[in-house]
Specification:
- The structure is a homodimer of 263-residue chains.
- The first copy, chain A, is an alpha+beta fold and 263 residues long.
- Chain A is built from seven helices and twelve strands.
- In chain A, strands 1-2-9-4-7 form a five-stranded antiparallel beta sheet.
- The first copy, chain A, is globular and about 55 Å long.
- In chain A, 37% of the residues are buried.
- At the A-B interface, strand 6, helix 2 and helix 3 of A face strand 6, helix 2 and helix 3 of B.
- The structure holds a DNA duplex (30 and 30 nucleotides).
DNA sequence: CGCGCGATTGAAGCGACTCAACGGCAGTGG
DNA sequence: CCACTGCCGTTGAGTCGCTTCAATCGCGCG
């Protein structure tokens, strides 16, 4: 079947204003905004925004939808690095090289602003608010990656999954959406790759969290029943570094490793 | 004993020029540079540049030395997120909040440029080269975090360590230093935290790589004997995603999991 | 000199990986 | 309209590698 055209052109200040809002900066209503034309690209679920190894003429700001960023190894193994949502920046990895180090695919119908690199630099130059927004977004992306490392650092797979769910929940509530009811758009395999465990283990970990009454799981619909409990459960770490410095050792949760499944 | 004062003030364009070089951008010799005073802070090994949770009035550009960025959990477990070297940006994590999400400590004597946030924005505004340099550095930091995820994603601990060493080697050669002979400044526990394994496992993995004749290890001095072999060994991934798309499956190295130790 | 910490090595237990089979759902094509 | 085919998700069984606990050695620093 024929799809409608995927590329619009929104002229004028209104689009710039919306992008600044997306980036989390507020501008004076009286502020004069450059009327640079802003391209919008719409994608269907499953379409790629850009491919790994492709040249990078632009960066992107997600307007709607969800993306998966990933890297494919020589042997075909797919490593997932993150899930981008409204307000996130995509394509930044190519700013220090000239090619994308990862591919990006839409997990649902989506739309992004396309900012050509020259425009990107020109906007940052002429519009301090844009620069601040970009730095905000970039900083947020680094925090996300940091939290990814944090999730992967957890020993027990159930703890990794709990951290992942807490992370998702926080992101949802930051967007003003419900923090309790999640509709996952990615497969178990995606989550497994993201968290560094096999996809079967993700299944089992979901079952374990459900048994603990922390969440209710029905395929990709996840309901958080006890957010506080889930957060507490997510705190479990590996054996601490021998309490060398006098860090406050207030052990909120489980004794050492993970959980004793109540039958 | 009394230490010399740790805060210098370098006035004039020369410092700005050096910082731009650090950030990897080249400027025309004739270019007029703003003569903004640039603070330099020097640190002894073991000193903290800033603490987790502290307010973030500035960002930093590493001039010399090596830093460790980490986060301390409630139970005292220390998660390492990265090691920063000459040319790296520090403190970016606070740009989207107003507090540092991780602490930073010098692993050897070091010095950094201290750029107050207002100056940071003013410089970016008035000096396009600075802006480009910052974006370059930030993009590089994101790539580093991405590679961290890549290291932690490897199943076998020896593969993780191999990737870590390759990563270090590349960074060294990017700085124009020897890529074969590494002097690690971090402890086994730091590496273990960074790679998501116990520090004993790091020891054993070093021994395994040494047995394979890929490296020679003497405490913190590591010599790479076979860089190509190490890189090949570092390719090992977890079981690929069933070769769904027709990705070229050129298996360069080990059959499935890890290694059969030759006695 | 001795204390502490980092590094190494050993032993034992368990948790995640792999392989495998099955049910469910969706998209496709007869 | 319905079989067919993939893929996703779940569950089971066995193996193996990592974690944890522990002891020992070496080095640097007070």
């Amino acid at each position: 079947m024929n799809k409608p055209p995927m590329l619009d052109l929104h002229p004028g200040v209104c689009a710039v204003h919306e992008m600044l809002e997306l980036l989390g900066v507020s501008v004076d209503p009286g502020q004069k905004l450059p009327d640079m034309p802003l391209a919008v690209r719409r994608l269907r679920a499953g379409q790629s925004l850009f491919f790994e190894g492709a040249p990078a003429p632009s960066i992107y700001v997600v307007r709607a939808g969800t993306f998966k960023a990933f890297h494919t190894a020589e042997d075909g193994y797919e490593q997932v690095f993150g899930f981008a949502r409204r307000g996130d920046l995509l394509g930044c990895d190519a700013l220090s090289g000239d090619r994308h180090l990862m591919g990006t695919v839409a997990l649902e119908d989506a739309s992004v602003y396309v900012v050509a690199l020259p425009d990107f630099y020109a906007l940052a130059q002429s519009l301090p608010a844009f620069y601040r927004g970009v730095m905000r977004a970039v900083s947020g992306a680094m925090i996300d990656l940091t939290q990814l490392a944090d999730m992967m650092a957890a020993v027990a797979s159930e703890v990794r999954l709990a951290r992942f769910l807490v992370h998702l929940s926080r992101r949802m509530s930051n967007c003003g959406q419900s923090a309790k009811s999640l509709h996952l758009l990615m497969t178990r395999r995606d989550i497994g790759s993201y968290l560094g465990v096999a996809h079967e283990t993700i299944s089992r970990s979901f079952a374990a969290l459900a048994t603990l009454q922390l969440v209710k799981v029905d395929q990709r619909k996840v309901e958080i029943l006890d957010l506080a409990g889930l957060q507490g459960f997510a705190q479990g770490t590996r054996a601490p570094a021998k309490a060398s410095s006098g860090a406050a050792v207030a052990r909120l949760r489980p004794p050492g490793r993970a959980l004793a499944l109540a039958a």
